[in-house]
Recover the amino acids of this structure.
């Protein structure tokens, strides 16, 4: 996760009168992350998840102070129970979630919007009796973030992200987004949005919304109470930093590449296609349809593995470079600087200091949870 998001969630801690330094230490994260807001450093996903969990407990607010009024810890879990139990399809689950949150004065408030069937028929027919109308096959989750006190936009970003990924978890597959719309102007950290959402992002829109195929609402809910218990134990990791649930080409390829590490070598596209029982051309087309490529996924998995290994202090930089398949350490150094904005040695030293400070307070081991694999193209505000 980007260090920007660490600074964003700690803003909520400061508002609630909670000192950020001890929280960072307990999460195994260095205090230096707070010093330069321009740094491109990244942190292991599991440590970020631990930081968020500690903030939930300290503030008793799942919106971490950004929602205007607190959303007590346990609210999301109860909404998830309502959505899972008895919902036949994603449409019914989302409408139940919408009704549940409408009962509380605090957010997040959202509504599911899809064209009415009668209106669809009239619009598609058109005045001349034929032709298609833009948007009739789209559905939207629209979010009311007007009451958010959210200068770094983390509240709006995380609300959309959690809703989208929870919906994908319910149907056991990633729901492809057509685009994501935000009321706020394009922020400095906008390049992170491609990693988070894997879709074009529009800034300065009339409403904050996630837009996807209307047909996805007909997907059956495939989760039960047992799966929900596991999901909630892992929260917020499974919604903040993991986007694939095994049924997409992106998820399967990432899984196979990740399983090959740390022993290596990373499977070639031909080897992956053979393991997935498809031709290399078919695999390439499937990844392209999901907005990504083999090279991009390989780099993402290698990046996440490198961050986890270096943060945990379990390996030498030269040995890690070799296992990740780089021809020489200098190539690994260049790639790591491109991924994180700093050298492997600097990252290892900084992370090691943070981990040491938090070791006595139950700091979690470094995780390698992958961020969203689909890299979207950002769209400017309309």
């Amino acid at each position: 996760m980007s260090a920007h998001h660490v600074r964003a969630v700690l803003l909520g801690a400061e508002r609630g009168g909670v000192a950020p330094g001890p929280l960072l230490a307990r999460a195994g994260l260095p205090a230096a992350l707070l010093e330069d807001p321009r740094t491109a450093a990244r942190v292991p996903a599991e440590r970020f998840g631990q930081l968020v969990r500690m903030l939930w407990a300290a503030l008793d607010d799942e919106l971490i102070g950004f929602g205007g009024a607190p959303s007590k810890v346990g609210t999301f879990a109860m909404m998830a129970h309502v959505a899972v139990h008895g919902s036949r399809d994603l449409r019914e689950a989302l409408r139940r979630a919408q009704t549940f949150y409408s009962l509380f004065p605090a957010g997040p408030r959202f509504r599911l919007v899809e064209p009415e069937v009668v209106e669809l028929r009239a619009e598609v027919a058109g005045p001349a009796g034929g032709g298609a109308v833009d948007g009739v096959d789209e559905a939207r989750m629209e979010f009311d973030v007007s009451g958010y006190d959210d200068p770094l936009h983390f509240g709006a970003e995380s609300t959309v992200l959690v809703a989208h990924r929870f919906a994908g978890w319910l149907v056991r597959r990633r729901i492809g987004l057509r685009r994501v719309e935000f009321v706020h102007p394009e922020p400095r950290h906008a390049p992170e949005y491609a990693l988070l959402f894997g879709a074009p992002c529009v800034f300065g829109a009339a409403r904050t919304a996630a837009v996807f195929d209307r047909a996805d609402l007909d997907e059956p809910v495939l989760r039960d109470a047992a799966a929900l218990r596991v999901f909630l134990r892992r929260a917020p990791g499974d919604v903040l930093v993991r986007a694939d649930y095994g049924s997409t080409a992106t998820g399967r390829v990432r899984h196979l590449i990740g399983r090959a590490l740390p022993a290596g070598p990373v499977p070639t596209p031909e080897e992956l296609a053979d393991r997935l029982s498809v031709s290399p051309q078919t695999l390439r087309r499937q990844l392209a349809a999901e907005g990504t490529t083999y090279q991009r996924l390989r780099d993402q998995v290698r990046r996440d593995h490198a961050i986890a290994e270096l943060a945990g202090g379990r390996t030498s930089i030269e040995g890690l470079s070799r296992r990740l398949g780089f021809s020489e350490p200098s190539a690994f150094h260049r790639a790591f600087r491109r991924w994180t904005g700093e050298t492997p040695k600097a990252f290892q030293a900084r992370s090691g200091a943070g981990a040491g400070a938090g070791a006595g307070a139950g700091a979690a081991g470094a995780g390698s949870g992958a961020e969203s694999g689909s890299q979207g193209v950002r769209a400017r505000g309309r």
